[in-house]
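Re: the multi-chain job from yesterday

Posting the exact lines I submitted so nobody has to dig through the queue logs.
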Amino acid sequence: MEITLARYAGFCPGVRRAMRMAQEVLGDPERPAFSLGPIIHNPQVVEELERRGLRILPEDPGEWEAAGLAGSRVIIRSHGVRPHLAERLADMGAETVDATCPTVKKAQKAAMRLVGEGYHLFIIGNREHPEVQAILGHVNRDAVVIKETRELKEWWEGQTRMVRKIGIIAQTTVDLLTFRSLVEGLITEVPEMIREVSEMKLINTLCRNTLARQAEALQLALSHDLVVVVGGRNSSNTEFLRRICETAGARTVKVETAGELDTSLLEGVSRVAVVGGASTPRERLEEIRRLLASG
Amino acid sequence: MEITLARYAGFCPGVRRAMRMAQEVLGDPERPAFSLGPIIHNPQVVEELERRGLRILPEDPGEWEAAGLAGSRVIIRSHGVRPHLAERLADMGAETVDATCPTVKKAQKAAMRLVGEGYHLFIIGNREHPEVQAILGHVNRDAVVIKETRELKEWWEGQTRMVRKIGIIAQTTVDLLTFRSLVEGLITEVPEMIREVSEMKLINTLCRNTLARQAEALQLALSHDLVVVVGGRNSSNTEFLRRICETAGARTVKVETAGELDTSLLEGVSRVAVVGGASTPRERLEEIRRLLASG
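And the result, structure tokens for all chains:
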């Protein structure tokens, strides 16, 4: 059996940066170290950091009093944070260490710029994702989050006032196909829109590392019988990788760890590819490779 | 035979304004009155103004010396003018009377704004149309004019440098279907574009009067056996009306005057509609109606 490990394996630059900042914070034993929510969407990595002393602060500020934040350092995870929560942390005497991914920061700024310029903002992505929540926080929640074309139509039909300026950005980890089909949907699914709207401004906030990872996964899926996608169950970009491989017609399985892999899937398979999300350590992929080679 | 005259018949507000300004200029017998090119795209109207003393200045400034412009008044037609030509007229002692349609003026401003903000400008429309030529003049010709999706692809393939910001406007009289399909084409025909481009800004410069006229023509074409489209042969908006009626499946004939109408076309026809371009006087449509009623 031939096994190919993706070239884009291991942490993306944004996650690497957040991990480096976590090490730094953990390096000061005098001060309690927190992260606001799990620092990245990978439970194994988060557990390892917890073992080394990082404590996870609940996302609900109602529970912060009990944590003892005065004098502590709190890492803002790569997905960013709603500004009022960062302010609240500072009020409670915590020093925030901002590990927001620079690409996510650009998306936040793009959102603020569009709303500031009077555009009605659309965010293509998942409403529940912490990155999207943080972006929403930066524009006082004055935006519509869409992940399917039909939502556009529903939103348009529910409008009572005239919308003259439309701004569009995307969650940074959305896949190119979703992004394109939703932008296209604005034109094809809501034909009145292009007549009514006087300005439409789209800022491409897609992460280039994510796009490269997706392109590689697609290529691997097209040339392999089975693709093992490795990443956190909560990881949005990992889930997009799975969808891309499946869309390409490859048999696709998603796991968090080597232990989850059902080796009976390998029967009759001659070419396997292993790909990983942006928050999946390279070693996790190597483990899977070893398991596949032995199995 | 049932004959329907379009409700949107006669001059659009921009043409009406230009005609009013022409009357004013002609009202001063002391000063020679010119228009820079035919004031609107309707030869019969232009001939009538010429009979009343308006002289048409050639578009090539090389021929202006001979015209004797000092002390004259020169009307800038509804389509607008390239700024350097307006300056040249002033240098030669002419007073310019700006009859540029306010909607066209908005398109010129949108073009300048986009180029000023660093967008690579696309103009959806006909390169040879005087409105487009005037818009191009306002941005030092720093724009790409497209009227078919394949031109987008060709342009993209011919690019050697990275284009990061794309701005889009349209000739004001382009029909909604052309506009939509070209905007859509940007996303579907050049799939790389949405990945490479970091910002895309579209300013809807379509004329609302033109859109209403087009919508009415479409509706009439769907409910009549024959549509007579009346307008100047050079008139862009009249030609779009003809195309819309033809696309709707109606038998369609375009004429400049009643004299051109071949009444043998009426055989077997029970419902006829008469529509006119933005620079077609209402009387011309009435003439056609009378001819149809008698024929």
